[in-house]
Amino acid sequence: MPISTSQRETMPSPVFHTIGLIGKFGDPHVAETLNQIAAHLRQRELRVLLDESSARLIPDNGLEVASRTTIGEQCDLAIIMGGDGTMLNAARSLVNYEVPILGVNLGRLGFLADVSPGEIPHSLDRVLAGQFREAHRSLLHAQVIHEGRIASETDALNDVVVHKREVARMIEVDTFLDGRFVNTYRADGLIISTPTGSTAYALAGGGPIIHPGLEAVVLVPICPHTLTHRPIVVKADCVIEVVLNAANSTQTQITCDGQVSLAIEPGDRIVIRKKDRKVRLIHPVNHDYFKLLRAKLRWGLGPDASTFP
């Protein structure tokens, strides 16, 4: 929606001046929203940097194209268009730059991307004016130690999952907290989740919902052989070690946020720590975590609202 000269004069000065735009990778449906937001920001005389992958969706738009590194170094706000998966990817790539990120949800109701396209430009203008809530979310840093050296490493905002690659075979992992042995799990896998990820795979595996403001990590075995192996919530500062038993013959890997996969071999150690830096999430002022849970998980609905016949 165009802004008249009189409207522009009455708008408060923005608290963000260089804005990065990142759209869902390879999704042409993002183009319309990218163009809408870019035009609105330029109308407000703000500098706009368009992520390289998103530039392919709206070519010849006149925007400054930038790498994810440049967006991290030069932007004071990143607007992410897509769903929670796009937010997870952006969070991992921008967390070290401490750039706040705002999610515009283009799919189903999301836990992280909670601004709908219909709320633009109103919600966006309020954020630019400093009217928003900021939440800091912890990430995990996972390292694969092979024969005493770091073979691979990555971050995860939701979870680190040690899991089998074959069907109908279990894996066996020894688990330690701060060097103390906890348990040997014989299961399809083990989920190590942040509070942010507690409403994702960990929840489907029977884990608890952990409020994102808590400093905690939850360990959830996937289909354990022994039913008394239950989810465990530990303090976030624990160093978690998962050792793939040397007797394992099942192909195994770790997957972070469902997006990054790292190979592991029998005898390898996976060392998981809380990352020092947190991702900065920007929410509208009316953001309500429990309202989001009610909508996403369909809490409090009567029989007439059931999705079942």
Question: Could you walk me through the main structural features you see in this protein, from its secondary elements to its overall organization?
Answer:
The protein is an alpha+beta fold. It is 20% helix and 35% strand. The chain contains eight helices and 19 strands. The chain has helices at residues 5-10, 31-43, 52-55, 68-74, 84-94, 122-128, 201-204, 289-297, and strands at 18-23, 47-51, 64-66, 77-82, 101-105, 133-137, 140-146, 149-156, 159-164, 171-177, 180-187, 189-193, 216-222, 232-235, 240-244, 252-256, 260-263, 269-274, 279-283. The strands form three sheets. It has a seven-stranded mixed beta sheet with strand order 3-2-1-4-5-19-6, with helices on both faces. Strands 8-7-18-15-10-11 form a six-stranded antiparallel beta sheet, with no helix packed on it. It has a six-stranded antiparallel beta sheet with strand order 14-13-12-9-16-17, with no helix packed on it. The radius of gyration is 21 Å and the shape is globular. The protein starts with a helix and ends in a 12-residue tail after the last helix. Mean pLDDT is 91; it is low at 1-9.
